[in-house]
Sequence to fold (565 residues):
Amino acid sequence: MLDTKSTDQPYRKWVEFAIESLIRVIGFSSIGFVFLIFLFLMREGLTALLDVSWGNLLGTRWYPILDIYGVLPLLLGSILVTLIAILIALPLGVGTAVFVREVAPGWAREILKPMIEVMAGIPSVVLGFFGMTLLAPLFLKYLGLATGLTAFTGSVILAYMALPTIISVAEDALDAVPKSYRDASLAMGATQWQTIWRVVIPAARSGILTAIMLGLGRAIGETMLVMMVTGNAGRMPLTLDSLFRPIRTMTATIAAEMGEVAQGSSHYHVLFALGIILFLVTFIINLAAASAIFRKRRRGGLR
Amino acid sequence: MIRVDQNKNHLVNKISVENLYFYYGKFPALKDITIQIQDRQITALIGPSGCGKSTFLRCLNRMNDTIPNTRAVGKVLLDDKNIYSPDADVINLRSKVGMVFQRPNPFPQSIYNNVAFGPRVLGFDKSTKNLDDIVEESLRGAALWDEVKDKLDQDAQALSLGEQQRLCIARTIAVKPDVILMDEPCSALDPIATYEIEELMRILKEKYCIIIVTHSMQQAARVSDWTGFFWLGELVEFNHTHEIFTFPRSKLTHDYISGRAG
Fold:
């Protein structure tokens, strides 16, 4: 027994080394790829600043055919659609999370939770299809609009898409609130609703904030769905009724135009610049979410 | 059960429990409890773990209602009104019967907001009092004011455990209850914090009816006027504390307090 073991030793050492190296290569290469993609994005996008003047880039019109590359209508379009989507999704999402965690009886929770997970799995193109053929005609008919493909239509569907993320993360946050807080509140004579509103939701605040941030991140990066239902007209959304008019987002613009653009042209580089802006916005949102989580951890450590 | 005449003329009956049974599913956790609890006195409930003393305490403010599949049978009269009658208002009951829990459980909010929680939730008469006064008065009542008066907007959970427990007491008395239930309030605290809570209880007794569940027989002997001994869901003996600890009538009580049973 002892003999075989000693002859095995170098072999086992070698296997150990091989596995370790493999894992290290895999780990570093995925980080490396992300870095390379980032470099590529920067190289292709920042060139736009050499080709196109700042004045042109910060303009309010997007007509690539005439070499007019104002990104503001697209940026504002993305922001408008995303913000309205979150405004719709936030009360619905947190409300559903509160219902599932605090109000619904056990059996209903068992049914609802998997259903919400399934909701998250619906491909966005299917949602876009649903928006195009069902919601848009509905809005056209009942809101008295010129077209059903508007920023609002996009926001409603985006909200639906962001809901599962918001619900499940917010539900986890509510679940993490200790029962002792609820007991303390109820024992004071607070009603169930007062307990939820004044104790449970404030205690879950940072988790709910994270849920919103993750929802935001999903919504702003979404492409196919907004391309299908927002009408894609690159106009500045400055007036209130812009919400009920067609709009164009950064993601939809990149997806629609990248395929046909001449490689290396100004247009090509500006599209990459849009990618950089998108990356920065998502980065900031993720950073905000991470700091919210960090604050929560630190608070937890206090106890 | 063995009992003595409690009706000395200065005592007022606050809570009368008559033939109370309590069930977790089919398991009877309390069997035929009958007891009179006096106002402005400290009543201690002792007994081994699982004997039903905490369950009994939670029957008095109906906190057991929050546990599914439970049932209480019998009468609990608070000021001669049955809190288990169908038309009883649980919210109103809990504002009159406050509770302090085993582990200090302040909300993760400021000290001020913790104390102001009850008045805000239940409403208070703004014409005669403002919230700042209620908070100060309650914190003074819980002997915590001098320690926290300069940091009312700080996170309550940054306080020491003993301070947190006194904050929970301040939060409870902010709504002016009649009765304060304490469920092993010192079991998470060190001896000094325990001493401070016990001192506080002696002061609070001037105004409130206090019922405390405790694992520590020494604590019961130190602070309480009355002691009830629970065993397997039954109230074995209820008497003046000094009687229970010097001349227990029941052999079981005698064995328990002398450490031979339990």
Strands of chain B lie at 13-24, 27-38, 42-46, 70-78, 81-82, 97-100, 179-183, 209-213, 226-231, 234-240.
